[in-house]
User: Fold these one by one.
Assistant:
Number 1:
Amino acid sequence: MVTGGSRGLGAATGRALAEVGFDVAITYREDRGGAERAAATVAGAGRQTALYELDLADLTAVASIGSLIASRHRPAVLVNNAGETFRGDISTTKTPAVQRMLNVNVAAPIVLTRELAPALSSHEEAGSIVNVSSISGIAGSSNAVYASTKAAVLGLTRSLAVELAPAVRVNAVIPGVFDTDMNHDALADERVRKAALGAIPLRRIGDPTELASVVAFLAGPGSSYITGACVSVDGGVLATVALDRSESEDS
C-alpha cells in the first residue's frame, strides 16, 4: 500500500515496488487521472493494482480504508508517502492548516499502522513499513509546522521499529529536493533553484526514481536486517548541515 501514489515520489515508488514483484494498492485524494496513470505503470511491470480515493486528513476514513485494504489485500508493505505542506511562516499558518498537516503527516500514518499491523505481521517474512520524512525534519525550515511533523515521523519510525519487531520492520527515508509537482513552482524561480543547487553537494535536483529505489529496497528482502533506520536520500545536504554545525562548535 502506497499513500499519495498518484504522482511524484508516490507514483515512482509504486512503479519501483511493482518492478521488484509487489502488487500495489494506491491511495489518492483528488487526482484520479494521475492515479490511473500510476496504476498503468504498475500494470506495465506485470503486477496488479487497486485504487482508493482517500483524504488522509479524515482519520475516520483513514481507519476505514486501512481496515478494508488489510482484509482485502493482506499487504506485506505499507509506504506512508503522502504529505501535506503549507508554504509560509508561522504568522500566516492558520489553525486548520496546522491540523491538516498534523493529520496527514503524523496521525494518518499512525492510524494506518494500527489498522495494517496485523496483516503486515501475518506473512512468513517480516512485513515492512517505510515512512517518508524530509530533510526539514532534521535541519528545520522556514515552515515550522511542516518541519515539526516530519521530525515526528522520524520519532514514530524508531519507536514503531521497536514496538512491532520482529514481525514488522519499520524504516524511514529522508528526501532532499526532488523534481516533483510539489516543488515545481518553487524550483521554477531561478533564484530558488540556484540556491537549492548551491546547498546540494551533488549539485543537482533528485529524480523521484532515485528515492523510489531506496524505498523498494527497504520494503524488500534485501533489507531484512534493517529496522529503525532513517536513510537520507538528499544529495548530501544533511552531511553539509552536520559539517557546518561541527565547524561552528570547533570555532
Number 2:
Amino acid sequence: MNVQTYARIAGALFLLSFVAGGFGEGYVPSKFIVSSDAAATVANIKGSEFTFRLGFAGFLIESMCDAALALIFYVLLSPVNKNVSLLAAFLGLISTTVFAVAELFCFMALHIVGGAGYLNSFSADQLNTLALLSLKFYTTGGMIFTAYCGLAWILRGCLMFYSGYLPKFLGVLMVIGGLGFFVRNFLLILAPAYASDMLLMLMFPGGLLLTGWLLIKDVDVGKWELTWRVSPAGPA
C-alpha cells in the first residue's frame, strides 16, 4: 500500500472509532449507570440487556481500530523520527490494553445480575451493589491510565508538526488534546475535584479535523517520500 492508502484507512478507522467509542463509552454508560442507585442501575441493565451488550461491542470495535491506528500512524510518522514514532505506537497499544482490562468489569456486571446459581448465596441488594461496584471499577479503571493515550498523542502531534507533509495546526491541536488526557489523569489521582471531563474534550477538535484531513486532503505524498528517503527509516 502507498502512503495515501494508509492515510485514507486511518481516516476511516478514526471515524469508526469515534462512532463506536462514543456509543460504547459515552452513550451507553450514561443511560445505564445511576451513580448512587444500584437497584436502578441493575433495572436499566435488565430492561435493555441487548443495548448494554451493544455498548461493549462498540468498545471492541473501537479497540480494534485503535490497534490498527497504532501501526498506521507509525508508518505515516516514522520518516520524521522512527524511534519516537515507535514509542508513540507502544504507548497507544498500552493505553488500549489497559482500557480493555477495565472494560472487563463492565461486562462482568452482566454476569453478576444474570441469575447464575452460584450467586444464590448473595441477596438481591448485595448483587445490585456488586454490579454497580463493578461498573464503577470500569469507569475509574478506564480513566486512571489515560496518560498513556495522552502521551502517545503528544508525541504524534509533535511529529506531525515537524513532518512537513501534514499541517502544523493539526500537530498543535493533537498535542493540546494529548495534554488534556495527560493532565486529567494525574488530576484524577492527585486532585480528583479538579479532574474535569472538559479536559478530555480538548481531543475532539484535533481528532475530528485530523479525521477529515486524512479522508479528504490526505498527506503531501511528495514531501512524505522525500522525508522517508533522507531519514533513517528510509533507504538513504
Number 3:
Amino acid sequence: MADPSGTRATRRRRRAELEIAAAVARERLVAAHVEQALSLIEGAGNRLSPQRALAIYARLHRLGSQEAKFISNRTLAILGERVARSPLGAPAGDGAGEAGDPLADSPRSLLQQIRHRLRGRTQHELRRWVELHTGRAEVALLEVHVDNALRFVNVLGPERSVAEAVEEYTATIGVRPTLTEVIYYLVLDRLARAAAPEEIPAVPKPHRPEPQAVNPTKHGLRILKDRGPSRREFRGGSRPGPRAAPDDAGPA
C-alpha cells in the first residue's frame, strides 16, 4: 500500500516547484515586455511620447490594466535611469519643459523629445513601423512562453502529458486562449528537436508512382500500317472500308 504521507509530500513539493516556475515565468514575461516597450519608444523617437507609446503597446498586446500599469512604470523608471546616467540629459533647473506641463519631468522631456501630431506620410510610416514592431515583439514573447511552458513540463514530469502541462502553464499565467495551441505546438517542436532520433516516430513518405510510358493500345488506340500513309483507328469503332480508287482510274 502506498504511503499517503509520502504522496502528500510529493504533491506539496511539486506545488512549490510550480509556484516557483510561475514566479520565474511572470518575471521573464515582464522583462520581455519592458524590453519590447523600450524598443518601441526608442524606435518611435520624437514622433510619440513615451506615455503614448506605452498605451499603444498595451493595447496592441492586449495587456490587462494592472499588468499594463506595472510594465509602464518599470519602463519609465528604466528610461529615467538611462537619462540620469547620460551626459546628454538636461540638468535640473535649466528651464527644460514648460511650466505646468505634466510631461516636464518625464523621461521624454529629459531626452529633449518634441511632441507633435502625426500627419500624412509620417503617420503612415509610423503606423507601418509600429505594426512590424508588434509582430516582432509577439514572436519574441512566444519564445519566452515556450521556455516557461517547458519548465512546467519538466516539473510535472512524465505523470502529466505535454498538453496538460502547457494548459497548466497558460491557466496559471493567464495566457489568452488563442495562444495556447500555438505554444503547445512550439513546445512539441522544441522537445522533438532535443529528443534522440529513435524517440521520434518516423513519418512515412508519400508514395509517388513512377511515370510509365504511354501504351497506345492500352488507351484504345491501334496503329494500322500498310503500304500507304499510316492511319489511326479507335478500337471498338467501325472497320475501315476498302481503299478508294484513284480519281484517274478507269472502269474495271
